[in-house]
């Protein structure tokens, strides 16, 4: 009698295939940008402005004068950012196996850390965007952390784990 066992979920694959991390980053960016546009439209800002604010990371205040071209650049920049976030988790999971064994906890922590790093460190101190010292509304910050935990961090963990279980790489 032949027995078949499932592959160990801890076997580490060399890399996440680009289409998987790119699809994950694209999906996360589209959903996050849609939620941001919806939230800020209720506060008097157009969706175009949300997209231009991402473009301002690289273009500075000129992004707000660029119309749909700078908005499209903002979308691409954010897709690239979240795709890099997805790929980085997979890369880290090769060294730190707990990231694969505990995908919900580690993914949630990773998502919260990525939100903080992107918006409270990189955008504030290292981008061309003009940021203001005043705090954003508490409900906005809470929504952002929830999105980064539930729609970015945890999916990062499961994408990395799925890749490993399938034995890709």
List keywords for this structure.
mainly alpha; 6 helices; globular; transmembrane
Characterization of this structure:
- This protein has 169 residues and is mainly α.
- The protein has one domain (18-166).
- The chain is built from 6 helices and no strands.
- The chain crosses the membrane at residues 20-39, 70-92, 104-122, 142-160.
Mean pLDDT: 88
Percent helix:
over 70%
State which percent range the strand residues make up: under 5%
The geometry reads as globular
Largest β sheet strand count, sense and barrel closure = none
Summarize the topology.
Elements: H1 18-41, H2 47-59, H3 67-95, H4 98-101, H5 103-126, H6 138-166
Can I get a quick summary?
With 169 residues, the protein is an all-alpha fold. 73% of the residues lie in helices and 0% in strands.
């Amino acid at each position: 009698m032949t027995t078949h066992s499932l592959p160990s979920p801890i076997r580490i694959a060399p890399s996440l295939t680009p289409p998987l991390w790119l699809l994950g980053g694209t999906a996360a960016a589209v959903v996050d940008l849609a939620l941001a546009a919806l939230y800020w439209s209720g506060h008097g800002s157009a969706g175009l402005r949300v997209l231009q604010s991402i473009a301002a990371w690289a273009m500075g205040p000129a992004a707000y004068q660029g119309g749909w071209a700078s908005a499209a650049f903002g979308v691409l920049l954010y897709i690239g950012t979240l795709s890099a976030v997805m790929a980085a988790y997979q890369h880290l999971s090769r060294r730190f196996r707990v990231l694969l064994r505990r995908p919900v906890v580690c993914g949630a922590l990773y998502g919260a850390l990525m939100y903080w790093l992107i918006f409270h460190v990189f955008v504030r101190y290292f981008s061309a965007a003009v940021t203001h010292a005043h705090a954003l509304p508490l409900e906005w910050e809470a929504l952002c952390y929830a999105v980064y935990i539930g729609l970015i961090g945890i999916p990062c963990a499961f994408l990395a784990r799925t890749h490993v279980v399938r034995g890709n790489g």
